Amino acid sequence: MKKLLLPLSLIIAVALSSCVKSADSLSENDAVQPTDTAQEAEDTPPEDDENVQSDETDNTDNSSSADIENIISSMSLHEKICQMIITTPETLTGYDFQTEWDDFTTVCYDAFPVGGLILFDQNIENSRQLSEFVSDLHAMTAESGIDIFMGVDEEGGEIARLQQKLGTEPVNPMFYYGDANSYDEAYAAGQTIGNELVKYGFNLDFAPVADVNINPQNELGSRIFSSDPQIVADMSAAVIDGLHSCGVCTTLKHFPGLGAGDGNTHNDTVYIERTLEELEETEFKAFQGGIDAGTEFVMVGHQTTSASGENLQSDLSPVVVTDWLRGKLGYEGIIITDSHSMGAVINSLSSGDSAVMAVEAGVDMILMPYDIVDAVTSLEKAVESGEISEERINDSIRRILTVKKSISALSAENPAPEESEELTEELTEELTEEPAETE
Predict the structure, then answer these.
(1) Residue 161 DSSP SS3
(2) Nearest CA among 139, 135, 136, 130 for reference residue 99
(3) Mean pLDDT for the stretch of residues 265-276
(4) Residue from 395, 412, 258 nearest 334 by CA
(5) What is the pLDDT of residues 40-74, one digit of tens each?
(6) Angle 199-202-204 (CA atoms, 0-180°, nearest 5)?
(7) Which of 35-49, 72-86, 227-241 is predicted least confidently?
(8) Predicted confidence (pLDDT) at residue 414 exceeds the cutoff of 90
(9) What are the φ and ψ backbone dihedral angles of 370, each rounded to 5 degrees?
(10) Does residue 299 have a pLDDT over 80?
(11) CA–CA separation, 296 and 187 (whole Å)
């Protein structure tokens, strides 16, 4: 782990942040955990089975909602806005790369208690290191009672961080499953990926891709299932089902579709000429499959789509985010931006401006803001000035906490003992080997 000089803004923010958590900032009763209604059921007189089941479901739902509202009411504005950020460990700490937790990581997290972290190749050395790093990062958030989303890009094919660094079981690129058009094969691919992610403590995969292969010059290539939107819908749903079977959250991307473009949003703006009718017949149909399968996240890309009538990146567009994704497709889960460190954003906007515009458009979470201090403080100022209402922020927090509560329950139901035993064997082998050299 190597240190760089921290940006002055981050030094000041960490030193002066009013958000350093105390042990009682969230009580144990506010912790995001499955609700236990067993004792209440024992004290209830026998009733008709169907009515009892309905009442128990209603009580659990009401209790869950009350728990979430209690948490929201106990959070400061700063904590809420930080919860709307998923970033890299390096953005928090200022290290040039990070492969292990340390006390300074906790200091930085306490100042900016983000909602999630995403790891890349540089964060992965070997099985033992990754397992300990992820476990320590989860433990770091335990006192708050709100665990982080621990995410990674593990699509299969060429975008597979764990497979490429650790040699986990390979999965074909997605065009293979589109060609096969087999639910069972695509489901198995999702399950294979999910088993590996759970083994190392990840609870969020930034996959699958639901773009349609319209322009062969698009930036995604073999990551796309098919040029047939129905096949994309069916196969993305199957991969989502496979990942869900392991308790892993999924991210359908890159709404409203990059497949008709011929540029790369990592570098600069991509303008896509599409009518609303074309989108409804093709891209929307493809994304609807994963939405109907229950994806927890939909990622909105940075492409500018002509049908929106706005000369804006899609994740900054109220038409794309609210009118289309929420309205036309009926999506009620978490909407997240693509990385706000990409050229299509940072070449024209500050991190603060892009974060405010995204939230105003209807986005719930900002992925990888280039300058986290600017993003967070700008959102705080927008709320304090009345530009964005705090209730609008609360709406996003409800979605985020609802998913976090559900994956906590899923984790309890899916302990994956076989995978845990396999990881133990791998760690034992690594402990007897020479440590790998790092650059």
Answers:
(1) helix
(2) 130
(3) 92
(4) 395
(5) 333 333 444 445 455 544 555 666 787 899 999 99
(6) 135
(7) 35-49
(8) no
(9) -60, -40
(10) yes
(11) 17
What is the C-alpha to C-alpha distance for residues 377 and 269, in angstroms, rounded to an integer? Answer: 26
Measure the CA–CA gap between 192 and 210, rounded to whole angstroms.
Answer: 19
Q: Whose CA is closest to 303, among 342, 330, 246, 334?
A: 342
∠19-24-29 over CA atoms, to 5°? 120
Rounded to the nearest angstrom, the gap between the alpha carbon of residue 175 and the centroid of all alpha carbons in its chain is 23
Sign of CA dihedral 410, 415, 418, 419: positive
Strand 95-97 relative to strand 2-3, pairing? antiparallel
Given a contact cutoff of 8 angstroms between Cβ atoms, the answer to whether 392 and 378 are in contact is no
Kind of pairing between the strands at 204-205 and 149-152:
parallel
Phi, psi of 235 (to 5 degrees): -75, -40
73 touches 393 (CB < 8 A): no
Is residue 222 predicted with pLDDT exceeding 70?
A: yes
Tell me the backbone φ, ψ of residue 79, rounded to 5 degrees.
-65, -40
* CA gap 177, 194 in Å, rounded: 17
Helices (H), 266-416: 276-281, 283-292, 318, 343-346, 351-361, 372-384, 390-413
Length of the chain: 439
Copy the structure tokens of residue 27: 């009580």
Residue 3: pLDDT band (50, 70, 90) is low
In DSSP terms, 97 is beta-bridged to 2
**CA dihedral angle for residue 223, residue 227, residue 233, residue 234, rounded to 10 degrees:** -90
Query: What are the pLDDT digits (tens) for 81-103?
Result: 999 999 999 999 999 999 999 99
Owner of token pair 């899609």: 314
Spelled out in words, what is the top-level CATH class assigned to the domain 68-431? alpha beta
pTM of the shown model: 0.83
Q: Rounded distance, CA 396 to CA 321, Å?
A: 13
